[in-house]
Design brief:
This protein has 361 residues and is mainly alpha-helical. It is extended, with a radius of gyration of 29 Å.
């Protein structure tokens, strides 16, 4: 009898959970619909108000707009309206945004006391629609605060907003703040955001190159990747970092990739040395060095790559074949001795590489 009651209790709990899930789903659906309808209504009213105040925003309009933008639906309606307005007349939208720039300052102080979700949305709005240059210290301080203490999505939104302010010193300050924070910020996000910097990227690259020694290994890797894509940086300094055994593993790999994109004759020999080291634990360094040798297509490099086709490491064989292909090697000519040799793995890798490229060796 006790077992039967236990079964009935379990069935009752299951039914209750099913009703709860259905009710919560219905609640979420209704709330989302109401939010969208409210946003659309606000966007319509806001668009009419903006048209009337586009050239010379009045203080009454600013107060009304600021009050609206203190809520998430107001921020979203502002974003939708300005997106539509900008698509129709970007010059008109820019004039209007410059006229309401003081609203962003007041909202910056307001949103510093709000939840991370609200702060992240505000940072996104600043990124898209704040136009005053140079940016006010209020805006910069608020965004730096978000980047220093926020969650990952808040930090990234704030960092992206700072990248749109066109200020090299502010950008370097933001990178140092992220680098010194307790929470890890992925180097790839840092590199991608720096690449979106709206100011002088070459000036930023030169300034960051001077800061390399003062950054953590993760940030160093991100900056070197940026320098690689901008074709900037001190090659002698980056080569020294690559050759220094005390340098972080990921930073050394970033340096190798730098010299693949920015060839320098002095680097050919160190890259060849990396490619032939026998420590299997350094397979990633060996593999990247092998790929980087594609930018140094002399006879010594080609001979080395042919030897690396016999490496016990699959990625090394793969990159060696790719580098030889990119150098224009022909299996029936330069690689004939490999194709006719006893190393099955080398032959199969050449066949596989050329097949990937749509060629038959």
């Amino acid at each position: 009898m006790q077992i039967e009651w236990l079964i009935f209790f379990y069935i009752g709990v299951s039914v209750a959970m099913a009703f709860f899930d259905l009710g919560f789903a219905a609640f979420e659906h209704t709330r989302d619909n109401n939010f969208k309808k409210k946003t659309q209504r606000m966007a319509l009213a806001l668009s009419e108000e903006i048209v009337l105040n586009a050239d010379f925003p009045t203080e009454r309009h600013k107060r009304k707009l600021e009050k609206s933008m203190r809520r998430l639906p107001g921020l979203e309606s502002f974003d939708l309206t300005l997106g539509h307005m900008s698509a129709l007349n970007d010059e008109h939208a820019t004039a209007y945004l410059l006229g309401i720039s003081d609203i962003f300052d007041r909202l910056a102080r307001y949103y510093q006391q709000k939840k991370p979700l609200n702060q992240a949305y505000y940072a996104y709005i600043v990124k898209r629609w704040y136009r005053t240059r140079p940016a006010s210290q209020t805006i910069v301080s608020a965004l730096i605060h978000f980047a220093e203490e926020g969650s990952i999505f808040l930090r990234q939104n704030a960092f992206e907003a700072l990248a749109q302010l066109e200020d090299v010193e502010v950008m370097i300050r933001a990178i140092k703040v992220l680098d010194g924070a307790d929470d890890f910020h992925h180097p790839k996000l840092i590199t991608e955001t720096i690449l979106c910097f709206s100011g002088d990227k070459d000036m930023l690259a030169d300034a960051l190159a001077c800061e390399l020694d003062r950054l953590s290994p993760a940030a160093q890797g991100a900056v070197i990747n940026f320098l690689r894509m901008r074709h900037r940086g001190d090659k002698q300094r980056i080569l020294a970092m690559m050759e220094d055994e005390r340098t972080n593993h990921e930073v050394r790999i970033a340096c190798m990739r730098y010299f693949m994109t920015n060839p320098w004759d002095a680097v050919a020999a160190p890259l060849r040395a990396f490619a032939v080291q026998e420590n299997a634990g350094e397979w990633e360094c060996i593999s990247v060095a092998t790929a980087s040798l594609v930018s140094y297509p002399d006879d010594e490099t080609k001979a080395l790559l042919k030897r690396l086709l016999s490496s016990p490491l699959w990625y090394v064989r793969f990159n060696a074949a790719k580098s030889l292909y990119d150098m224009g090697a022909v299996p029936e000519a330069e690689l004939a001795d490999v194709m006719e040799g006893d190393d099955r793995y080398a032959r199969e890798m050449i066949a596989y590489r050329w097949e990937l490229e749509g060629m038959n060796p």
